[in-house]
Specification:
The protein is built from 7 helices and 53 strands. It is mainly beta and 743 residues long. The strands form 11 sheets. Strands 22, 25, 26, 28, 29, 30 and 32 form a 7-stranded antiparallel beta sheet that branches. Strands 1, 4, 5, 7, 8 and 10 form a 6-stranded antiparallel beta sheet that branches. It has a 6-stranded antiparallel beta barrel with strand order 44-45-49-53-51-50.
């Protein structure tokens, strides 16, 4: 599997099918080992004698002075621990220095992560990855694979920098706050082969004296009052009984602490557990930060931290009005209460035992076989009156039995109850997790909603888990919208099942189906990653009504759920104009004026044989090729001329679309040598273009270039000044797609 953003080739990264991407640098021989996870191959180092052995990448990779780079790999060595380094090279390929990671704390044959990051020094022109181990004898073997070199990995949407999220570079973004010291360590940690956001080095918080201890991040990312944020990181408690925690804090512009919301980790052991906490930023909030700590620690105890994130809180269902704290129960029971009956509420324990989202669920317990009612806090629903809303939650009966009736309780702006919309009462299904839903229409004056559940335990000592609670406005499951200015149809799909397979077709009036393009190519059996998907179809025909047909299935053999959209049509506008589109880069699509209608030829490969004394030759012919011809175009302005150059630069297959009535269908074409001519005086901005084209098949594997989830906040977090942005990216398109120079 290719690691996203890797500067190394796939052969160098995975050591498959050979070791051609690597060279022995010191005291070792290299060969291809087996038993890897990113493909079977591994880089096998065997020491020649005692002392340090090193291997490096065969190639050097261009770097930018002052830019931070990260290297990581997975390592396995039963005898001695390993380390990884970035070797900085001059333009003359001479070594400047090596930025080394710490050596792993212990040796292990189990695959574990080693990682380092560093800033390219002055005079650095390129870099190599170096892996190292120091055996006490010859013939000691260490394995490496899954190797990365590139800009530091970070969580998209994280308000914190890569150096605050990970500890591969230094501890400069962290400070000891109370009764502790902090340092970097490289413990043995085995992360999944395709999890790249946690590395080989972690922050170690060492308790100074018996008592509570805390450390915090020194960065102060901006936060907005009224917005819900989530903070999380991996916590490694010193013992399973230790009370370790993560805390999300909000401050004023004058650095006055407003609120601190803490979530304790209910650790099932002494591994690494991602603990989350969420809160709404109060009035006058200017920035946020994250703190970690241990309550009632013992002197010299060590807790470890990695992967720190502050981000806007996730929404479990697109459009849900239930805050994350009340929907996922990661810190506590949030705003939920028992309004009648003997039931009790608590966060499930320990971490990871019961959950649909993240690591915890709400636990409802009843000691007696009686009825109880529980209710959430009130949530703003906007001008809800007359609109249909849907309630959804997951339940898991873990002891006894229950009957459940689901309600949405409505309130006006003055917090007066307006009554309930309710489902029927039914036995809670069992075993395992089940989805329960209810739909209702908000009454007049409704501006707020709460979830209310009528629960009856059918036996003593019953327990029910609840998680992933959502209320959202029930909008159409499939919706289409035509944008004539860009010649794009936007298809919106809602309430999809995450993990199922999706296929999307465009259907014309004659019933012909064509698969629609997505980020990974044509959308057929694509795994659904979110409950809502927006597809921008830039290849929809002009002036022709089309519908969209969708199938959603659990797997390729299952009977699918189907959806069909309303008809939609793109207005072609002035028939003298046509569109040239790049299927993989629709932001480059361009509407151009045709200078004259094209004339077409259809060449054919033929062999001619003349038989003696026979009048007519024998012709052997291949199938006739598609259309070939020249598109004669005008560009009217310098902006159009530059845009056409950008469109042609990639050399990609293009889609040519003309208005109906011209006797030619939409056509995918390969463009040859483009000729640009002037119309008249040198100052005239008009240009005449001749584009020789050949008809080709629709590209099936080309995906729409995108950077899903990337925002301006990511650009702001990663770059302190606009000068840094200009130095890292060649174009604004590269900023959008996060394609850094040299990456």
């Amino acid at each position: 599997m290719a690691i996203p953003g890797n500067m190394l080739s796939l052969v160098t990264e995975s050591v498959d099918p050979n070791t051609s991407g690597w060279l022995s640098k010191l005291n070792c021989t290299i060969s291809k080992g087996t038993g890897g996870r990113n493909g079977d191959g591994t880089l096998r180092l065997s020491s020649t004698a005692s002392g340090e052995m090193q291997a490096r990448t065969a190639s050097s990779y261009s770097v930018t002075v002052g830019q931070e780079y990260q290297a990581f790999a997975d390592a396995s060595g039963a005898t001695v621990p390993e380390r990884i380094g970035i070797r900085w090279m001059t333009a003359a390929n001479a070594e400047i220095s090596i930025t080394w990671s710490l050596s792993t704390a212990t040796a292990s044959a189990t695959w574990h992560r080693i990682a380092v990051s560093g800033t390219a020094p002055a005079t650095a022109a390129s870099a190599q990855v170096v892996v190292s181990a120091t055996p006490a004898a010859g013939s000691v073997i260490n394995h490496f694979e899954n190797v990365y070199l590139g800009v530091p990995m970070r969580t998209q949407g994280n308000l914190l920098s890569a150096d605050a999220e990970g500890i591969e570079h230094a501890t400069l973004k962290w400070v000891a706050e109370t009764n502790c010291s902090i340092a970097r360590q490289a413990p043995l940690v085995s992360w999944p082969v395709d999890y790249y956001l946690a590395g080989g080095q972690v922050l170690a918080l060492t308790v100074t004296a018996n008592g509570s201890a805390a450390a915090k991040i020194t960065e102060k990312p901006a936060a907005t009052a009224g917005t819900e944020y989530v903070g999380y990181c991996y916590l490694n408690p010193p013992t399973s009984g230790s009370t370790t925690w993560v805390e999300l804090r909000f401050y004023t512009a004058a650095d006055v602490l407003l609120t601190a919301t803490r979530a304790n980790l209910a650790a099932p052991g002494t591994g690494y557990y991602q603990q989350r906490v969420s809160a709404v930023a109060p009035a006058t909030t200017a920035y946020a930060t994250l703190a970690v700590g241990i309550t009632s620690g013992t002197a010299a105890q060590v807790m470890r931290i990695d992967g720190a994130v502050i981000a806007t809180a996730p929404v479990i269902r697109e459009g849900s009005i239930v805050p994350y704290a009340d929907a996922s129960f990661e810190a506590d029971v949030a705003g939920w209460t028992v309004t009648s009956g003997v039931a009790t509420l608590a966060r499930s324990t320990p971490w990871g035992t019961y959950s649909i989202d993240a690591a915890y669920a709400l636990t409802v317990s009843s000691a007696t076989a009686t009825a109880s009612t529980i209710r959430s806090a009130r949530f703003p629903a906007g001008a809800a009156a007359g609109k249909s809303f849907r309630l959804q939650l997951y339940t898991n009966v873990t002891a006894g039995g229950w009957t459940v009736q689901r309600h949405i309780r409505w309130y006006d702006a003055a917090n007066n109850s307006l009554g309930l919309t309710s489902s029927t009462s039914a036995a809670a299904p069992t075993p395992n997790w089940w989805v329960l839903t209810h739909s209702g229409t908000a009454p007049a004056l409704a501006t707020q909603a709460a979830v209310e559940l009528s629960l009856t335990a059918t036996s003593t000592s019953s327990a029910l888990r609840i998680d992933a609670v959502q209320i959202w406005e029930a909008l159409p499951l499939i919706e289409v919208d035509a944008d004539d200015a860009t010649a794009v149809v936007t298809l919106t799909l809602r309430e999809l099942t995450v993990g199922y397979l999706l296929s999307v077709w465009r259907v014309t009036s004659d019933g012909a189906r064509t698969l629609v393009r997505g980020a990974s190519g044509l959308i057929q059996y694509e795994v659904i990653a979110a409950d809502q998907l927006v597809v921008e179809d830039a290849e929809a025909p002009l002036g022709v009504p089309v519908t969209y047909y969708v199938e959603v299935a659990a797997d390729v053999s299952a009977a699918p759920e189907t959806r069909t959209s309303d008809p939609v049509e793109l207005d072609p506008g002035d028939t003298q104009y046509a569109w040239l589109k790049d299927p993989g880069r629709p932001d480059r699509n361009l509407r151009v004026m045709m200078a004259e209608p094209p004339s077409w030829s259809r060449p054919v490969e033929q062999a001619e044989y003349r038989v003696r004394r026979r009048r007519n030759p024998v012709i052997l012919s291949d199938v006739r090729a598609g259309l070939e011809g020249t598109l004669d175009l005008f560009t009217e302005t310098d902006e159009e001329r530059e845009a056409l150059h950008r469109l042609l630069d990639s050399g990609s297959v293009l889609l040519w679309q003309a208005a109906p009535g011209h006797g030619v269908d939409d056509m995918y074409v390969a463009v040859g040598a483009a000729a640009e001519g002037r119309q008249g005086m040198a100052t005239d901005t008009w240009r005449t273009w001749q584009l020789p084209v050949k008809q080709v098949d629709m590209p099936a594997t080309v995906g729409v270039a995108s950077s899903a989830g990337r925002t301006w906040q990511d650009v702001l977090t990663e770059n302190a000044t606009w000068s840094e942005v200009l130095a890292k990216y060649a174009t604004w398109e590269d900023v959008f797609l996060d394609r850094k120079i040299g990456a």
